[in-house]
């Protein structure tokens, strides 16, 4: 036999190619957790500074009893105030595809790349929010010991002692802390084992929002910082209002940038195009000016447990 | 005319050419340690140790600007009772300059000076456990009085947390006798805390710092002498 029309023969003759790209794009694992919604947005004020100062006022003064019916009066009460700063800083991300990359197309193309650039703002805010955990004064958990339901409850008790509302409390934990918490829930006896949310958490959900436990939204993020020379992770449980963020308005960069070169324009970020024609390269530069701050320390508590 | 290639140049990876930097994604920002008055924990080997927070020079975080200066976050930290541990303080002794940095592909990785990593083939990074060094550092901060002292209310708070755990461990052990060991370990931990507290207070605080005592109102017989007035024959006697 001879001259059969086989794949191997045609491949070697150039009638077939060794591989073709699938139309389906496999998205590799990453952590898409967004914590923006867990922070208060503070509109950036004024145009003369990179820093917005926010005043804090403590309400809740009670009246004093008079020492006499007709004399003595009252001394003045000073309203307790404080403040914190939100300073914006430039954050950016550059991707530089070539013309040939664009021409050859496929599921992974320039538009997909622009999607990554746009999403980067959310991930940056998550990273910045987690960057606030390390300086929270309140702390529960034991260095070198796995996270337990006890630590979770200690954090809840701490927040309660500081007059925090229970509604809307969140716990942002590292994956290791979530695993350890689930392990601890497995061993719980008494009423805890019958809680439906405890059963729900045992199903090992993935990244991001992993469930609600004892009224607390548990969120997993790989941005949770290390602590104690990388021996531990410092997660955080916090009530609404613990953290604030702002974003400088970049809706109009005219006349700094030719409007035709702004590929993505939002008030919060823009993606600028810079062409290197000689080398057939195009830079796409995502720009944003975020700032985050700890608005009130007593609204949060660190949960430091084994990494 | 054809050309024959017959002698490839031997290729050998030189040890000094191997990548000795941390991979992409490990870059972070400079930091300084800070201690808050209530931030204490108990370690059975080292006794009571201060828990350290970090102020990170990350632009856009807590008032840090593009230049990375820490003035604003440090001011905010002091405002809530933080005590910043200056890395150049001579009292740090062997731990002076406690922050170090490794080169990364995309910057620098700032870390505690004793931090070590193993980079596995394939580029995965595994931190080496140097928690013993960090405990020694914290113990030095305590002993050199570079942190807030452990006050009695904070100690009581720590003990109370452990007592609650003991109670729960007792409940568990009552239902499941095999958990008795956990209960006993918790009991031993509380006893060790009491012992460590005795050592701490005995060695360190003849004059407890920051304890407020109420002003005692004067007893009736301690009322100071007043002008008796013209109709009185004798002034009130004042006894010491």
Question: What does this 3D model show about the protein?
Answer:
The complex is a heterodimer of chains A (307) and B (240). By secondary structure, chain A is an alpha+beta fold. Chain A has one domain (24-56, 79-307). Chain A is built from 6 helices and 16 strands. In chain A, a hairpin with a 4-residue loop joins β13 (269-276) and β14. Chain A is flat. The mean pLDDT of chain A is 90. With 240 residues, chain B is α+β, with helices and mostly antiparallel strands. Chain B has 2 domains: 2-148, no CATH class; 151-221. In chain B, 30% of the residues lie in helices and 19% in strands. In chain B, α3 (152-175) runs antiparallel to α4 (180-204). Chain B starts with 30 loop residues before the first strand and ends in a 36-residue tail after the last helix. The model of chain B is unreliable at 232-240 (pLDDT under 50). Chains A and B meet through β3 and β15 of A and β1, β2, α1, α2 and α3 of B.
Write a concise synopsis of the structure shown.
The complex is a heterodimer of chains A (307) and B (240). Chain A has 307 residues and is an alpha+beta fold. Chain A has six helices and 16 strands.
